[in-house]
Amino acid sequence: MDATRKPIEEERTPTLKLVETKPVHAKPMDTKSNISDSVKPSAPKHAESVEYASRVTGGERLSEEFLQSRKATLNLPTSGNTETILRELSATEDYHKKLEKHLTRNGIQIPADIPYEVCKDKIASITKQMMDLQAIEQDPYKLEKRYFELEQEMVKYSTAMMLTDEWAKEQQRLEQEWEESIRADNIAALQKVRSHMPVNVRSMTEEALASERTPNGKTLPKAFARKFKRTNVLQLLRVNPRDIEKMHPSYFEGMRTTGLTLTERRALHEHVKGIGSKWAKLKADKNVERKWLWFDGLKRKFMEMQTAYDLHRDDPQSRHVKSDRILDYNDDYGFSVEAEYESSGSHGKSESHITNETNNKALAHVQPKKKADDAEIMTLIRDRLQLRDPDSEADKKLLRELYHAEKRTRLLEKSLRQARIEIAEDDIPYAEAKAKVAELTEKIKAVADDMMSTSDMKRAAMLEKDFGTLAADLTRYQNAMMESTEWAAEQLEKERQWEESLKLKNQIALKMIRRHMPVNIRDMSEDDLVNLTTPNGRALPLQIARKFKRTNILLLLRMHPTSIEPMHPSSLESMRTTGLTLTERRALHEHLRDLGRKWKSLAKDKMAERKWTWHESLRTKFKELVNAYDAHVEKYGPEGCPSLGNRCHVKADRAVDYLGDYGFPEDAEYIVDSVAKSNLLTMEDIKKRRQEEEAFEEDEPEEPDGFLAVLAGLRK
């Protein structure tokens, strides 16, 4: 659990006011000694089964809102324990909010505590609905909307299932079965590759490998010599696993793995899988974690290739089968197939013993521990909070609530661990965290510079270790800083100042573009725009007419925000934004700014979240362009640099000239219409628009893409 949780301070004064009911225990609730005694922490028993620590950090007052939510419970008889339990519940709820905030900020769905079997049944049901959806629903808009809803349900139940103990056990069982099913093939592959590889392959050159006689009088083909020296990860097959285990992670990360055949991947997996199991248990160490990540990437690619090969093994013309035969390891060149290593006395028998011992330890590690029952967990909670008085009726209800809160805590923490997200420490003040972030950033820069300039391998390894330590500290202080209310307020103020500094230029840009844009532009074609006589008697240039109709996101400038707000996210996501100038992005940002804030406030709704994500991507690109433009102008002046094309940000913004006036209203004039299905882009509309933009004509029907392709795959 969180190491930063602290026991309640003994000197705090109780502030809870309870209803006047007859307590179960004779001691009055407001006795100072009673409260202080009840919260002294003690080491939990059976720590291997469950771990519990108090989250109360001091004399914080219980909020009125919290007390009101427990009003019914507090009308029951209470005891001297009641306030202690209430404080722990309040602190736990705050801790839950903190964990949920971490998950939300990292784009991870907050998990629900749903039983494994329920999740499995729901996932099977949703999968069937997805398969049947295209057959029962013909309307593309309704089809996509329903598919999106099913997709969100699938994510919800999949996330919940993957956090259950049953799912973890099932994955361990399946992985063990997979390992057993391929073990014979892997051992055979390892022996084949070793029969082509000298024990001292690492100290030989490519020319020596291809020219020297092998133990049985043959000459190793150049293709094998080249492969062993250039795809150097294969040389690990002649390195003792105990030596591999001690290597620095950067050594593995620098190895070439591109172009490995399935046979070679089989051999590598068999050789290093025991070490991978060890690394998996020691991932708390950052260097070991890096080695495990390297091994895990190698393993996943092997699983992918092996699965594809099994599906096509009966087809000799399949690319999966052919690619494994690029190098034929069926010949024997007389080198030892046993576990013989350079400068090592280890042989096949000893390696087998080492590997089996490692695997047995790994299997023992993943054996499920006996779960603590409800009574044991309750005892641990009582011991931790030092609840000495007999339980009152209110205490029983509150303790049960605290028990379920603790289960919720473990679920959220597990979700964060799986996503490799560190939990910020509460006790680091904002000013201290901010100063530490600045200090550590400078140290990391200095270490990085040293790493780039040093040629001493030992010093490089030490610097890399220092870099990892500093990076971990930086992450810790950054998380603590970003959790503080001061940081949130500072970011809001920065955002307000940034918006205010651009507001005037954005408003001018919006008016400039509207002077070139008819109010009813959505009902006009490109030819209509070119042939139109504008209100002041001019003709709109072809370049601008083409820009408005092809970069169709600009048409939103003549749509009322109340008409944009209810649009389907897919209609917004399909709009073309490529090639927008800074002036055009200024206008769009000004027009959509309030909508973006509204969508953000409604982000719990998945449809609103998609629209906010779309708006946020526009806003992020706009900020990048503004910063690049301002830096360019500061360096070269308002006329820009001598470079041609988009290299000069000033010239790129003037690619479409909006300085003229074509007499169209510059104010917010719209054709207001209700958003109906016909106003939303269908899949056919999107397809047609893409064809027009890319000047592409199809001779044959195109295969479905996006979510329709997924549906088609499910139906197959």
Summarize the model shown.
The protein is mainly alpha-helical and 716 residues long. It contains 29 helices and no strands.
**What is the straight-line distance between the termini?**
46 Å
- Listing every helix as H and every strand as E from the N terminus to the C terminus, the arrangement reads HHHHHHHHHHHHHHHHHHHHHHHHHHHHH
Query: Approximately how much helix is present in the residues?
Result: 55-70%
* Category by helix and strand content: mainly alpha
Mean pLDDT, rounded to whole units?
79
Unreliable spans:
1-51, 344-372, 674-683, 693-716
Radius of gyration: 33 Å
Please report the total strand number as a whole number.
Answer: 0
How many helix segments? Answer: 29
Tell me what portion of residues adopts beta-strand conformation.
Answer: under 5%
Broad shape? globular
Mind summarizing the main beta sheet? none
